[in-house]
Amino acid sequence: MSRISTFDSTLADRLPIQAHTLFEAKAKKHLTFEQIAKELGRNEVAVAAIFYGQAQTTPEDVEALARVLGMENSEKSKLEAQLAGYPFRGQTMDMPPKEPLIYRLYEIVQNYGYAYKAVLNEKFGDGIMSAISFSTKVEKETDQDGNNWAVITMRGKWLPFSRF
Amino acid sequence: MSRISTFDSTLADRLPIQAHTLFEAKAKKHLTFEQIAKELGRNEVAVAAIFYGQAQTTPEDVEALARVLGMENSEKSKLEAQLAGYPFRGQTMDMPPKEPLIYRLYEIVQNYGYAYKAVLNEKFGDGIMSAISFSTKVEKETDQDGNNWAVITMRGKWLPFSRF
Amino acid sequence: MSRISTFDSTLADRLPIQAHTLFEAKAKKHLTFEQIAKELGRNEVAVAAIFYGQAQTTPEDVEALARVLGMENSEKSKLEAQLAGYPFRGQTMDMPPKEPLIYRLYEIVQNYGYAYKAVLNEKFGDGIMSAISFSTKVEKETDQDGNNWAVITMRGKWLPFSRF
Amino acid sequence: MSRISTFDSTLADRLPIQAHTLFEAKAKKHLTFEQIAKELGRNEVAVAAIFYGQAQTTPEDVEALARVLGMENSEKSKLEAQLAGYPFRGQTMDMPPKEPLIYRLYEIVQNYGYAYKAVLNEKFGDGIMSAISFSTKVEKETDQDGNNWAVITMRGKWLPFSRF
Amino acid sequence: MSRISTFDSTLADRLPIQAHTLFEAKAKKHLTFEQIAKELGRNEVAVAAIFYGQAQTTPEDVEALARVLGMENSEKSKLEAQLAGYPFRGQTMDMPPKEPLIYRLYEIVQNYGYAYKAVLNEKFGDGIMSAISFSTKVEKETDQDGNNWAVITMRGKWLPFSRF
Amino acid sequence: MSRISTFDSTLADRLPIQAHTLFEAKAKKHLTFEQIAKELGRNEVAVAAIFYGQAQTTPEDVEALARVLGMENSEKSKLEAQLAGYPFRGQTMDMPPKEPLIYRLYEIVQNYGYAYKAVLNEKFGDGIMSAISFSTKVEKETDQDGNNWAVITMRGKWLPFSRF
Amino acid sequence: MSRISTFDSTLADRLPIQAHTLFEAKAKKHLTFEQIAKELGRNEVAVAAIFYGQAQTTPEDVEALARVLGMENSEKSKLEAQLAGYPFRGQTMDMPPKEPLIYRLYEIVQNYGYAYKAVLNEKFGDGIMSAISFSTKVEKETDQDGNNWAVITMRGKWLPFSRF
Amino acid sequence: MSRISTFDSTLADRLPIQAHTLFEAKAKKHLTFEQIAKELGRNEVAVAAIFYGQAQTTPEDVEALARVLGMENSEKSKLEAQLAGYPFRGQTMDMPPKEPLIYRLYEIVQNYGYAYKAVLNEKFGDGIMSAISFSTKVEKETDQDGNNWAVITMRGKWLPFSRF
Amino acid sequence: MSRISTFDSTLADRLPIQAHTLFEAKAKKHLTFEQIAKELGRNEVAVAAIFYGQAQTTPEDVEALARVLGMENSEKSKLEAQLAGYPFRGQTMDMPPKEPLIYRLYEIVQNYGYAYKAVLNEKFGDGIMSAISFSTKVEKETDQDGNNWAVITMRGKWLPFSRF
Amino acid sequence: MSRISTFDSTLADRLPIQAHTLFEAKAKKHLTFEQIAKELGRNEVAVAAIFYGQAQTTPEDVEALARVLGMENSEKSKLEAQLAGYPFRGQTMDMPPKEPLIYRLYEIVQNYGYAYKAVLNEKFGDGIMSAISFSTKVEKETDQDGNNWAVITMRGKWLPFSRF
Q: Second label for G136, Cα 20 to 30 Å away, from A149, B68, E32, I117?
C-alpha cells in the first residue's frame, strides 16, 4: 500500500484545529489528496491547502469532504464548526523554511525573484501577479530516460498599480 | 516607446559588476529581455538571471550578448572578464522581499508550501523538486473579459532521498 | 517662509537616484508636495511616493515635474533617464520603522490588524484589500478646540480568493 | 446563513483569555461585529479590537456585550473579571504579518511610509499622528462595474514635538 | 582642559549631515552641550539631540548655534540648508544598543517596563505617556560619601486611548 | 470602583510563578500598587517589579505582602517558597516592546540615547549610570489646562570605567 | 556499562512523535546506534536521523527496528502509524546551533564555505553537491600518540545547473 | 580554456584585502586552486581558504604563492604586508548562506546535526570534533553511469570536555 | 538562613528534566553549590552546570549528588535515568542574555573580544582558547574599603589551527 | 621575526578612526601589545582595547603611545584629536561573533552563564559583577606535557541591587 501525506506532529501547535480532524480521517481511509480532490471537483493543491488551513471551503466542499472521508454525522458537525470562520493564512510556516523540499521553492524566489520581476514588468507593465486571484497545480512528467520531473504552474491575475 | 527593465540604483551595491555593464548596454539599445533572449536561444527569465548574476553564460552566450547589445570589442572584453568566474547566486535579495511583486511569490511559498509538499510527496515519494536541474518560464494570457493573467511554470527534476 | 520636506542624508544610500535629483530641485524652488501635485493632477501622497521611488510616472508626469520644478533641459533629460525603468518598491524602509511618525502607522497595523481582518472578512468575505489597485490621501481637520487631526484614507479594491 | 469571523485556533496561545469567552459566545449567537457594535454604540473595528484584547471596555460596554451575546450571569461575571485590568496591546501579532490581508496593510506602511511623513510634515509641521488619540473605521463601496472597494479611514490627533 | 563629547567616526554613516558640521565646530570651540544650550535657552539634552538629528530647530536656534559656535556666514548658510527639512528620528541607533551607557537605559526599560505600565495605568488609566509632548533633563547629585549619581527626569503628556 | 492592574493572560508563560500568586491576591483585595507599597515602605514601581519578578524581597517584604494581601498561612508559605531564590530579571519582555506604553519608553532610548550619553559624559566623564545601584519613581502632574503629565525619574550611581 | 545517546528533554517539543517511542525503547534495551544500524543494514547516521525524524523508513526498516528494539506488537503498530507519513525535515534545529558539538560543524561551513565552493566549481563546473542524493558516515581514527580523530565523510551527487 | 574561480564583486566589501591581490593574480595566470596548492604542498581547500582570509600562511607559503602566481617583487611585498597579521575568520559569510552550493552544506548540518552528535557521542564520549585541529579535502568520484559525486572529508581531533 | 539559588520557573520549559529533580532536592536541603561541590570534589561552577544540563556526570558524581541531597533510592534511580545520556548544551540561554548579571559577561565579550584575540594571538600564535578542554572558577575578594569584587578565572587549552 | 596583531581590513568600516592610526604605527614599529603596554604602565588587554576604541586614554597615555610608537609631532596631534572624545564602545563586534577565537568566549557565556549567576548569587547575594569597575588580564601557562593553556582573569566590583 503506497504511502500518503499525514499529520506531522512537529507542526501540531501551529496547525489549525481542522487539520487534526481532517488528517486523522484521511489517514484512516488512506486516501491521497488526488482522490479527495476528485470528490470536491477542486485541485489537489487547493485541497491540501484546506487541510493546512490556507483555503476556504463552501458548504458543498464540507459535504464532499465528510462523504469521501467517511465521516459520521457527529464528526461532520465538528468539522463544520471548525471550518465556520475565515482562514488565517500563513501562520504555519517558519521562514526561511527549514524543510528541504519547501526550501527549494524559497530558493527559486531568492535566486530568480528579480529576473521574474524584470520579465513580468516588460510583459505587463508596472504591477504585480496576484497571489489571491490565483490558482496553481502540480504535474508529473517522465522523460525518455525515465527521470521524473515535477512541474508547478502558478497563474495569477495581473494587477496594474493604480494611478492616483 | 515602451518601457523596459533597467538597472535599479538602490541595488547597486549588491549586484555583481556585470549587471552594471549589461543593463547600461540594454538601456542604450532599448531592448527587452525577450528580444535579447531570442539572440541567445535561451529563455528570457534565464537571460534576466544572467543580468542579475544568477546564471552562467557560455562563450557563445557572451558572443550573442555582445552582438545584440551592440558592444564594441573593448566592452565585450570587459564583459568576458566580468563573466569569467562562477556565479555567486542569491546575494542580491533580502528576505522577506520588500518589493511587492516579488513578495507575492514569497507569499505563495509561505501559504502553499506545505500543500505543495504534501501533493509532491504523494505523487513522487520522499524527495525534492530540484532548483538546480530546473527551468522556468513566464507567459501572458488574456481572458475573454480582457483581463491579463501571468503564468509562471517551474519544472524541476525529482530527486529522491538516498537510502544509506 | 514655511518649512518643506527635504532629502534626508541618513537615507541617501537606500534612495533611488531620482530622489536626489527631485528633492534637490524641490528644495531650490521651495515647493510643497501639494503645490507639485496640483501641476501633475495627482494626489500629493502619490507625488511624494514618486520622489521616494515608490510610484511610476507617465511621460506627462515627467513633463509636469520638470516644469513645476523649473528644470532645464539637461536636468529634465537626466530625470527622464532616471525614471525610465520600473519602480523597485519597499527597499527604503527598515521594518519596524524607527522614525516615530511612521512607527505610529506600523503600530496601528500591529494593534488593529486582526480587528481589520475580522471586520473586512465579515463585510466582504474571504479575500484581501488590494495595496496595488489602491489609492490614499491625507487630510487635515481642526476641531472646535483648535486641535489638529490627521485623517488618512486608504481605498483598495477587494480581491476575493480564487477557488481552484 | 452568512459566515462570521471566529476564534482562530492557531492564535490561541497569544490571545488574551477574554478572546476565548467572547468569540465562543459570538459564534453561538452567530453575530457579526457590526451587529454587536450597534448594541455598544461603538465602531465595529473597536469592538473587534476588544475581542482581540486591543481596546478597553467600560462597565456599560460589558453590560451591552453580555446582553447582545446572550450571556448568563455566571458567564458575564467571568467576562467582567477577564476585562478588569488594563489591556496589553500588540502581543498577538507577529511582524511582519504572515496573514495576506494584514500584510497588505503592512506593505502600505512599508511603501508609502516616507511619503506619508513628507506630506504630514508639510501639512502639520514636526510631529506625529497619534495612534492613541485615534479612531478608525472600515467602509464598503461598490463602483459602477460592480467591483467592491474597501475604504479604511484613520483619524489621529496631531501631536507636535515639544520644544525643551 | 576637560574632555567634551565629539563626533564618533564609527557612527559616521548613520548620522545626518548636520552632525558633521555641528560636531566639528563644537570641537574647534571646545564647548560643552551645557554651554551651547545656555545660548539657545534650551535644555542640553535637546541640544545634543539636535546635533544627532533627533530634534528640530527654529531659525532663532540656528542663529544662536552659529553665534555660539563661532561660525562664519558661509558655514551658517550651510548649516541652515542642512537643517531646513524635518528631522528623521531614530535612524542612528541600533537596537539593542551595544554602547554600555545606552544599554543601561535600554535595560531599565527591559526590566521595569511592565512595572512602569502597571503603575502608570493605575495612576492615569488606559493610555500612554507621550514621547512627543515630552521633555527630559539630566542632573548630577553627589551624596555625602562623595559618590556621584545621575538623575534623569522624563516628563510626557498623558494620552488616554480614544473611545470609538 | 476604580480599575487596577491585573495579571495579563497573554504573558502567563513568561512570568515567574510568584506573579500568579501575587496578582491573584491583589485582584481579590482590589488593591493598587500604591496601597501595597505603603505597607512595605517601598516605592510602588519596586513593588510592581516584585510582582513581575524583577526585584528581590526581604523576609519583611514577604510578611508585609502577605499581610496587606490578606493571605492565609498556607498561601504565605507558598509565596515564601516562590520568592526564596534570586530573581531572573528581563525574561518577560520581548524587545522591541509591542505594548504601546512601553514602546514609548523604548522610543525615548532610541531617539535620545546618544544625546543622553553625550551629556552624561560631559557631566561625569567616561562611565555609565548604573541600572543596579538604581532607583526610580513615577509621579503625576496636572497643568493649569487640566492636562495630566507623567513624570518618571531615574537615579543611578555613576560608575567610572576602571583604568587597568 | 557504557553510556548511550538518549532522548533529550529540552528538545521534546520540537521532535516528532516517533522520537519519543524510539528513544524510549533504545534506552530500555541500552543499544547504540551502531548496534541498531547493523540490524537494518543501514549506516548509523541514517538510523540516528530516523530517530530524529530526518529520514524515511521502509516497511523492512520498521520490522527491523521493532525486532532489535524488542517491541511488542502493539508498540510496533504504534511505531508504524507514527512513521506512515513523509518526513518533515529540519524543524528540530535552531540555527545557529547552540550545542557546541553541532556548532563546530556550522563553523566549518561558515569558515570554509567559500573555499569549498571555489574548489568544487573548479573540479565540477557550475552546480551544487546534492544534500538529497547524499550519504554520510562517521569514523574513528586513533593516531600514534593515542589521540582520537573524528572523520566525517559526505558524498553527494553533483548536479550541474540546467541551461534554459 | 576551462573556467576558474575568480573574485566575486558582490563580496568585495567583506573580503580581506589580500583576497583582491591574490584573486587578481590567479585570474591573470589562469590557475586553479589545485595547481596553486601543489606549489605550496598544501591542500587546495586550505589554499582557497587563504584566498578568502580563513587560513594563515607561513613565509614559505607566501614565497610559493608569489612564485606560482608570477608576482613581481613589489607585488610580493604588498602581499607579505597584507598577510602579516593573524586571520580574522568567519566575517565573510552571511548565515544562513544564500549561495545554493553553500546552503546545501548548511542544510546538511541542519538536518543531520543531531544525528552526528548522537553517533559521535556514542563513539567518543562527551566532547566535540575540533574545527581547529582539523583538516578537510574535496574529491571527485565518477560512478559507472557516468554521474559525478563530490566527496567532502572532514577530520577533526576529538576533544573531551574537561572535568573540573 | 541565607538565600540559595533555586529553580527559576520562567526557565522551566528550556531546562532539562534533571534540573527539576536536582533543584527541588537542593531547595529541600537548603544547600549551596559550594556545599554540594565539596561532596563531589568538583568546582561549584561545574556543579551548577550539571544542574543546568551543561556538564556530564560520572556514576560517582551521581552517587555523591544523591547522598548530599538526601535522595531516597527511588529518587536516585530517577536521577540516574535522567542523567544517562549525553548533555545537550547551550539550549537554555537566549542570546543576547536579558538577565543583567549574565548580560555583563556578554558585554565583556562584546567590548573586549577583539582585544582578547589580539593579545592571545601575540602570546600563542594563530589558534583558539578551547572552551572544551576548559575549567573555570569564581572567587570573592574584599578590598580594604570593604567592597566586594568577583573574580572569574577561565583556563582553556590553546589549540593552534592545523596546517593542511 | 614573530608575527604581531595588525589592522584587519574586513573590520575597517566598523573601527574608530584612531584604530587606523594606531595599528599602522604599531605595524611599522613591529611592536606587540605587551611591549606597548609596558610603556603605558597598563595591562596589554587595556591597550589593545584602546586600539579598538573600547577604552579611554589619559593625556599621559597618549604621550606614551606617541613615544613608543615613534610618532612625529604631526601624527601625535592627529592622534590626540582622534582620542579627544569619549569612547563609543561595542560598535565593532557582530554578535554572535563569527571569529572562532571570540566565539569560544561567547560560548562560555552561553553554556556557563546560568551557572555563573547561581554561584555568584550564592557568594554575593542579589546583584551583578560590574563590567565597568572591571579589569582583566590574559596569562600563558605551559603544563608538564608542554601544552599551552590560556588563562583569562576577569575582576569586577560586586554591585548589589538597590532597594527602593
A: A149
